[in-house]
Every structure is written in C-alpha cells, then in structure tokens.
Amino acid sequence: MNRPTDPHALTQASTPVGTHAGYMPGFGNDFETEALPGALPQGMNSPQKCNYGLYGEQLSGTAFTANPPERTWCYRIRPSVKHSHRYEKIDLPYWKSAPNVDPDVISLGQYRWDAVPHSDQPLTWLTGMRTMTTAGDVNTQVGMASHIYLVTESMVDDYFFSADSELLVVPQEGRLRFATELGIIDLEPKEIAIIPRGLVYRVEVLEGPCRGFVCENYGQKFELPGRGPIGANCMANPRDFKAPVAAFEDREVPSTVTIKWCGQFHTTKIGHSPLDVVAWHGNYAPYKYDLRTYCPVGAILFDHPDPSIFTVLTAPSGVPGTANIDFVLFRERWMVMEDTFRPPWYHKNIMSELMGNIYGQYDAKPQGFVPGGMSLHNMMIPHGPDKEAFEKASNANLGPDKLDNTMSFMFETRFPQHLTAFAANEAPLQDDYIDCWTDLEKKFDGTPGKK
C-alpha cells in the first residue's frame, strides 16, 4: 500500500469490501473505484463539473461499436492531452516489432535457448527488453512478438505506454511493481499480468535482478477461452483475476513519457506525473493472475489430450478456433492414463509454438530445457520428446504419477515466428538442441502382433 516516505508513492483507495490487498476480483468485470471519497460521478459519466476539479476522460480499448465495447471512464487531475507534447524519436535497438525478417537469420527449424544472463549494466523495463521472435504485422494489428526482459533499475520519473499492443508479462525471477494510471500491480514469479494497450505506467524493481517473459499481442485482446463441453468449472476462473484499485500521484516534476507506436519509439517531455487518475469505472483495466490457481483438466482413462486443454487465455483471430495467440500453461498435475504414451506425442501443426520454463523440469524434455530458457518450434516443423523421455514413457509402470515441481508455458500463434538477430546471434542458443532426436532408433519389426 502507501509508503509515505517514498516520493513516488501513489495515493491509493482503501480496500473495498470483497477485495484484498488493493485488488478487485473478476475478469472483464465492470469495476468502479475511487482514491478520494466522492471522486467518482454516480448515475452519469460526464457531469458538467466533476468533484475535486477533476477532468472526465474515456479510455477506449475497442471501437465504440464493438460488442461488447471495452472502455474505462477516468477522472483525473489533468486530461491526457497534458501528458503529450512534441515527440522526439528514439531508438531501443533490442525491442523489435513485426514484420522483422532478417535475411541473414534462419527461422526455420527447432531452436532452444538457455536463460538469457543478467547484464552488468543497469537496465530498466525499456532498455532491458530483448525481443526473441516476431510474427504478423504491427501495422495491421495482427500477430505478436515474444521478449525476454532483464530489469535491474526502477523507472524514475519515466513512464511508458504502447499504442501497438497489450502485454502479457510472465515473471521468472525477481519482483516488479507496475504503477499504472488505474492502480498498482505487484508481480512475482508464478503470477502473470496483462497490461492493456494505451495504458500509461512505470515499472519499479521491488526485488532484483528481475527476469521474465513478455508476449506482446498486436491483435484482439486476450480473453478467457471457450470451455465447450468442459463446462463452467476448472481451468482459469474469472474471480482469480485481480484488477487494481484506484491510485494516483499529484507531483510536479520533470518527466518523460515513452510511446511505442507502429514499432517505433518516441519520447515526450512533461512537467508532472501522468499517473493522476483519482477515480475510474469500466471494463478496460490491467490485471494480475496467480498461475497457482489454474486448475488443469485432462484425460482420466487413455490418450494424451491436445495442449489446448491447458489454455489460460486466448487472443482470437478472424478464424474461429485458430488463435492469434494462445497462452498455455503446463503446471503440476496427475497423469493417470492407462496403456498410453503420456508425454506430448510427436507432431507438427499449423501453429508455431514458443515455450518458456518458469521453474522445474518439463516432462517431454527432461534435460536442457532450463528455468528461464525458451524453445521455438515453428509452424509445420516436427518436434516431440527426446530419446530419454521417449524411452522412459514407453517403459514406465503406468500407475498414477504426479508431475511435480514444474511450470512452463507456451505462446502459440497461427503465424510463423521469425527470430531476431539477438535471438540468433546474442542469446545463449543451444547449438546442439537438434541433436536430442539423433539417438532415436528405428524399432520397426514387421512380425505380426509385435510391439
């Protein structure tokens, strides 16, 4: 909550009934919250005069006529036009956007990286972003990019927003604070955050150094997947997503706002903090979610289900059932299938799969896929268990077996993912990863009935 000795502390709403630790539960809810009593108008959105001399302003996350529209009404000390001045273009050389096809880089293949090591130089949320892959086109608002972040320093009187994308943040190490226009989100490993397109925020280090993964979504917003015959329960429950309560700063201090727009970065200089929303209501807001509350479902008799059964969030495309991005979680769970090869089977498919390891060991790759590491299997490129995993699963005693101490995830997209020069040349690429399938043996025996 508030830290009065901290000059950057935000004045935060008291915790309303039904919330905890400064958060309000529910995915896609229509929230209302105020940091000062009476700051939020009742019964209307745009009164002739707002209380406390505030300005009413709407932040829209969809077109006005979208169904349903996503928008939030903000009541702020200054309108956003006061947070925007003349722009100067800057370069953040490691943060790339699609299309980013490097003619000297081969993206076709199976790739795996060790954890990107921390740097000796101080890095903020902006300077510490390292793009690994891009897909689609930021200008037409389709596709995505995947990044690693390395953060050691807090942003001080520096702020950021992306006009291009919402960000899905997956910490792997360290703790961060996202001080946003709509409130504060504290984030640690085993949690994720969703930061909407257009929302201004500052990132502070609570416990460092910090490292994690980011999925930058150019397309439609992430939503909960349709559950079909699974029904109303399990997977990710809406009540476990937490939006922050209102918090604001009223500080007159020279500040810099950096904007990402069509893959380019610009800065503007202002004389105050832009985090000045005293009250807000609406359904366009940042969230955090504890991955430990995800309840996996699966096969309880035979066969291994498609990994889509583990989808936490999906960003739809124009093709039903084929996502712009699926965020898929592989966490601790019981395996009980009879007469079944239990790890993911060998496959190639239309989707490209980028995986990251938060902690522990992944069942299909028991060696080499380290915490903080990533792998990429692009569209229609075959992949599956290595020899060790295949032999173990083919000969295991198939009693109930708990996969424990494991949490990895997948950013899966309908678009091919192109490696950046950083991913190909600077990140710790495992050159021998492709060799994990070399020792797979020909086991064919044409004898009838032979297994």
Automatic annotation (TrEMBL):
InterPro entries named among the record's database cross-references: HgmA_C, HgmA_N, Homogentis_dOase, RmlC-like_jellyroll, RmlC_Cupin_sf
Cofactor(s) required, per the database record: Fe cation
Annotated organism of origin: Ruegeria intermedia
Keywords: Dioxygenase, Iron, Metal-binding, Oxidoreductase, Phenylalanine catabolism, Tyrosine catabolism
Region called Disordered, residue ranges: 1-28
Family that this chain belongs to: Belongs to the homogentisate dioxygenase family.
Protein name: Homogentisate 1,2-dioxygenase
Top EC class of this enzyme: oxidoreductase
Taxonomy of the source species: Bacteria, Pseudomonadati, Pseudomonadota, Alphaproteobacteria, Rhodobacterales
